Here is the input.
Amino acid sequence: AEVAAKKLAEEEAAAKKVAAEVAAKKLAEEEAAAKKVAAEVAAKKLAEEEAAAKKVAAEVAAKKLAEEEAAAKKVAAEVAAKKLAEEVAAKKLAEEKAAAKKLTAEDTGYGSVGGIIMVWKTKAETTGPRNSKDVIVYLESDTSFPPVTDKLMQMDQRGLLFIPHVLALQKGTSVEFLNNDSEKHNVFFLFDKTGETLDIGTWDKGQSVVHTFNETGTVITLCKLHLEMAANIIILDNPYYTHAEIDGDTQRTTYRIDRVPPGEYVLKTWHKKLKMKGGEAPIKVEAGKSTKVNIAITKRQYAQ
Here is the structure.
């Protein structure tokens, strides 16, 4: 009986040991499986976070690149507009010099009108693409002139600007409206004298449209596609006018109208914002002489 009891106890101990080893092995396997699943979940989450971070970085980089490209395009447009303005100014200067030489070579049966233009009790903005430095000085007389028939001028659209943004011409002159910009443009007129409007069309880069102005007055020129674009076209009855530009530092400039037939005239000015002090000035032009008339332009309340 003692031997049998001892044997039974040994068998129970062995069974318990085997059961403990099986349980330990099972627990180790379950812990390993759990660690494996946790590692896979963590790896998947890390991969998703890395992918999201890469996506955000790519979007930030793309946005930055787009902003840099837009800034570069804006700078390029401003440089192109400035270059074109300089070319227009150089061309105008060359034409004025040529006209002056021609005048000295011709007869002296004409007179001239000239003087100083000064800004009074205010200041004209002379910088930026939409400045107010332009002044048109012109003469009116009792004689009506027939429209010219063979004169063509140009107004360009570039860098979302009309160039030049102030254009004076004699009635009957045709203007070619160019589009040297990177997108479509429109030309739309508002006639200051009558309030009437006229849309002459919309066209792509490299195309142009010609329009003839047969009536005197100021025409505000707009683009329906870009409402910030505006220009002024001043149509005059006769060729006795000149275009001057105010100096930003002195707020002054000079003007001169040559080859004016002798007679009595009324001198007037056009400016986008300012009026001529006194409104106008009656003058007399004599052959071979220069009539000097200094002009002050100012705000409306100081003009009279």
